[in-house]
């Protein structure tokens, strides 16, 4: 497929056969899977997934890639391509009863974080997600409390999913080669949520506020959202900085504020 990568779409096309094989092996597609690829590009992964599953969907923003990809995959199975921006696409429309979504993709690095947040809001059941991302982003996704990598993305993902970094991918596996290292990661949404969040909007607001001023103590960064009594009720030290508070602590603090919004 002859297509010049477009910088405005954040396109870096995967071409390394060894890396492609390792990715497909990690996904382990099967007939009947409800596979959805985000940004199939030139079809490096699409071809292998379609051969194994027999049918799948894809969401592609670059219209110039859709016709060549359709031709490439014509004899491999049933491929439904949606010409759309993944940041605005309603993935719930692809849900099928008894077949939870399996999301995969080489996500454009320039929109990876907002796209991950968008996917977290998917109203349809999701079995798993497998993504290629900038290595630094994967490190943030899987980070434990206490380090500079731990932040809003860590908390918002880990409260919903198990994050499993699988392997690193060097720049040479892509065309053009990016200036950063990449990594492949698996996200497994919890079948039974380990945390009970009473108000998702308030929880998200508290996490965002805490890390927007991460050098401040929680008492100061959350002054407009959390009262002293809420810290005490949740068993959270208000003198901590956000990077020291584990996911459970954010959940307990948000629930305390939600259930007693005005302790006075």
SSE blueprint:
Layout: E1 13-14, H1 17-27, E2 34-38, H2 44-53, E3 55-60, H3 63-72, E4 78-83, E5 101-106, H4 112-120, E6 126-134, H5 135-142, H6 152-158, E7 161-169, E8 174-175, E9 182-189, H7 200-212, H8 218-221, H9 228-234, H10 247-259
Parallel strand pairs: 2-3, 2-5, 3-4, 5-6
Antiparallel strand pairs: 1-8, 6-9, 7-9
Helix pairs in contact: 1-2, 7-10, 9-10
What's the number of domains? 2
Extract low-pLDDT stretches.
5-10
CATH class of the largest domain: Alpha Beta
Tell me the CATH superfamily of the largest domain.
Vaccinia Virus protein VP39
Number of helices: 10
Q: What does the overall shape look like?
A: elongated
Q: Name the CATH architecture of the largest domain.
A: 3-Layer(aba) Sandwich
Query: Using only CA atoms, what is the Rg?
Result: 20 Å
Catalytic activity: adenosine(1518)/adenosine(1519) in 16S rRNA + 4 S-adenosyl-L-methionine = N(6)-dimethyladenosine(1518)/N(6)-dimethyladenosine(1519) in 16S rRNA + 4 S-adenosyl-L-homocysteine + 4 H(+)
EC number: 2.1.1.182
GO molecular function: 16S rRNA (adenine(1518)-N(6)/adenine(1519)-N(6))-dimethyltransferase activity; RNA binding
Binding site for S-adenosyl-L-methionine: 12, 14, 39, 60, 85, 106
């Amino acid at each position: 497929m002859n297509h010049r990568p477009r910088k405005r779409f954040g396109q870096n096309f995967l071409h390394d056969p060894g890396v492609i094989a390792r990715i497909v092996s990690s996904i382990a597609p099967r007939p009947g899977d409800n596979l959805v690829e985000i940004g199939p590009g030139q079809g490096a992964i699409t071809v292998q997934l379609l051969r194994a599953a027999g049918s799948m969907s894809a969401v592609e923003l670059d219209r110039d890639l859709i016709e060549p990809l359709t031709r490439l995959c014509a004899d491999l199975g049933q491929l439904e391509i949606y010409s759309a921006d993944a940041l605005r696409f309603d993935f719930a429309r692809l849900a099928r009863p008894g077949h939870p979504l399996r999301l995969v993709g080489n996500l454009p690095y320039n929109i990876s974080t907002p796209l991950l947040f968008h996917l977290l809001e998917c109203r349809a059941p999701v079995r798993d997600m497998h993504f290629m991302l900038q290595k630094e982003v994967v490190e943030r996704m899987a980070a434990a409390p206490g380090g500079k990598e731990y932040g809003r993305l860590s908390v918002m993902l880990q409260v919903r999913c198990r994050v499993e970094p699988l392997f690193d991918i060097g720049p040479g596996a892509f065309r053009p080669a990016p200036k950063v290292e990449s990594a492949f990661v698996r996200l497994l949404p919890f079948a039974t949520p380990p945390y009970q969040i009473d108000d998702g909007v308030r929880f998200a607001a508290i996490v965002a506020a805490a890390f927007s001023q991460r050098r401040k103590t929680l008492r100061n960064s959350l002054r407009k959202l959390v009262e002293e009594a809420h810290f005490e009720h949740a068993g959270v030290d208000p003198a901590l900085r956000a990077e020291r508070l584990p996911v459970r602590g954010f959940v307990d603090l948000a629930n305390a504020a939600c259930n007693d919004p005005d302790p006075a």
